[in-house]
Amino acid sequence: MVTKIDNQKSSIATATEKSSKRTTIRKKLSMKDVAEAAGVSQPTVSFAYNRPGRISESQRRHVLETAERIGYPGPNALGKSLRSGKVGAIGLMMMDRLSLAFDDPSMIALLKGIGHSGLFEETALTLFPLNHLLTASGLPGGTDSLAVRGLADGLIITTLPNGHPIITQVQEREIPFVIVDAPKIPNSSFVGIDDYEAARTQMRHLLDLGHRRIGVLVDRLNPDGQTGPVSRQRFEAATEALMSERLRGYVEAAADAGISYNDLKIYEAGGLGTTAGQAAAFSLLNSEKITGIVATSDVMALGCLRVARDFSLNIPQDLSVVGFDDIPEAVSAGLTTIQQPMVEKGVIAAQFLRQIMDGKHPSGVKLVKIFQTHLILRSSTRHI
Amino acid sequence: MVTKIDNQKSSIATATEKSSKRTTIRKKLSMKDVAEAAGVSQPTVSFAYNRPGRISESQRRHVLETAERIGYPGPNALGKSLRSGKVGAIGLMMMDRLSLAFDDPSMIALLKGIGHSGLFEETALTLFPLNHLLTASGLPGGTDSLAVRGLADGLIITTLPNGHPIITQVQEREIPFVIVDAPKIPNSSFVGIDDYEAARTQMRHLLDLGHRRIGVLVDRLNPDGQTGPVSRQRFEAATEALMSERLRGYVEAAADAGISYNDLKIYEAGGLGTTAGQAAAFSLLNSEKITGIVATSDVMALGCLRVARDFSLNIPQDLSVVGFDDIPEAVSAGLTTIQQPMVEKGVIAAQFLRQIMDGKHPSGVKLVKIFQTHLILRSSTRHI
DNA sequence: CTGAAAGCGCTTACAG
DNA sequence: CTGAAAGCGCTTACAG
Q1: How much is the pTM?
Q2: What do you get for the CA distance between the two ends of chain B, in Å?
Q3: Angle at CA B211, nearest 5°, toward B207 and B213?
Q4: For residue range A18-50, what is the model confidence (pLDDT) as tens digits?
Q5: Contact list, A149 vs chain B (CB under 8 Å)
Q6: Is the domain covering B17-75 a CATH 1.10.260.40 domain?
Q7: Which of A25, A102, B85, B246 is the Cys-Cys partner for B112 at CB 3.0 to 4.6 Å?
Q8: Going by CATH, does the domain composed of A87-384 fall within 3.90.850.10?
């Protein structure tokens, strides 16, 4: 039987009778089966795998050969974990759905860093996306995560909103963890930057260039999907620590230059993607007369450059734009931006986690690393 | 106590006495503890979570409230899995170490696709890197993977070398799986392209433009780390199915034009990274008089463009280069290349896996999707 | 060095 | 609708 399932070269084919029969009969092998086949006790099989010194070398070889012969793939990780408390996997916990995680250059860079650390080469890495539904209490939900249910020996947690209940659960479970960027929790190991200061620098750059009518593009202040102009109330109630810190930097730097909150035109994109960024940039440019824009991410800033072209605005003659992150695309786009070491954050987070998991520090000691950031001048900003 | 751990703003700080004491005393909570606190049996607690209809609504609420009150985070995934056989996670199994996976644009695109499918939003996604050590038998090792030990309910397997023993183990364990790109295994669900035909097209393009002295840059034919010119013997013994298929396409297309194997200058980079690619391009350009290069990936091709600049070669006047993949950077680099739908591969792989895991197909039925590829003409190739 | 028992935290039959 | 028992596959004490 061959059934077309679409109009390209695609088909459903039936396997041979033989192979499907074979798989139906076989049962899942356990240490008990190996023990039986080798004529030893089940714990002896366990020792053959995990305690080479505990049994004689000949016995050990006999057991392992028997295991190979009958097709036993080695100790089941679940049984092992349940008893020993260790899984052999670490987790990365993030707010967004899986579908967005890999569109976010920061997330990719973080993953790269964890990989480059070389500390978890033998370890599986599990991605735990949290849903961002709001609970009745107004706080984000998503407490129902496998991450706190024994599926990871340690966690790297990144950009969760303030007050997310999962953090408490992780702490209660005593799962070793390191937070990257947000939220900032007292007495937790943490890797990040000074978002407030970096944002001040970003805003000050435009102010120093003489800009006074400035727009602000912010990714997201709260995972409720809201978009549009940001009221002072919404700003103050923001749960996304990272973005709210940056926004605070903009607002205070502007205030120092005599520009009030309402004079800043602050627009929230409601998401991290290019699409959301472009929509917000469109609203901003469409409704406000501005000469400069600061964005809380390069993705937003690059979306803004694209929209500016649609408005026939020349960059930087008609509009100056400053980004945040310095992702690879920022270079070719000539974007002036704040550089932060995203890959290195991953490396250090992995190192911290490794140290904590290895019990190198008393439980009360927390590791903290704050990276420096730099303003990178390119061609998207100029004197007004 | 505050100890500097480096010369930036980094420190180790001690948590409050109170919090460290609290955590030392508390024990890990299980259903037994909830049952005790709620005055019900342990299975009743289980039913409260998993079988809402099995107990009365008031009982259920009482149990869940008690659980929340004492800080129980919900059923432990390990105990649950051990009994039920389901984990709640799918796995992505790949050959390379974690450190390389996120440097590979194809891998990122595949992950994006899995995410974009929207089918595993509630599921954890575990990355299982396999080590690429060779065993005594000359076959790649890395059989000691958690992937076959119960840590994933289903697997997406990508670009493993032919004959990798883990595939047999996955089949023996009857873990649902879909293979992306390689290896091609009889009767397995598969998502890929026709690598042989795509490579023929790539080579034919240079031939049609009049090139006769052609170099070939191949990522890796065998995970043994070897680099340099590729003998016919090594070509024929290649275990990396993807690359060997492409190479076969080059060799046969060249033969059709009267160019022998030895007239082609074939260089193996030994890895997937930019560094390996640049080194191979350097050797190739340094030792051979050629007018055109085909590469088995855009990463190789882009590395080649960079090296060509160091040799003061103008592209395409002095050298034509054709890539493979059409990664985002290929666009800005003006690279002529073979386009393949990498994100879509991930989407379809996820769909296939979901269907297989849901038992929508009898076990003998395999799903297959072969995507079409296209030659994209840009500015890196021209008539000789 | 080896074996038999206990138990990790659950769910699934099996009785009531 | 509810409870008590069995067992998923292991490792870790505890005896010999």
Answers
A1: 0.87
A2: 71
A3: 115
A4: 333 333 335 678 888 888 888 888 889 988 888
A5: 73-78, 80
A6: yes
A7: A102
A8: no
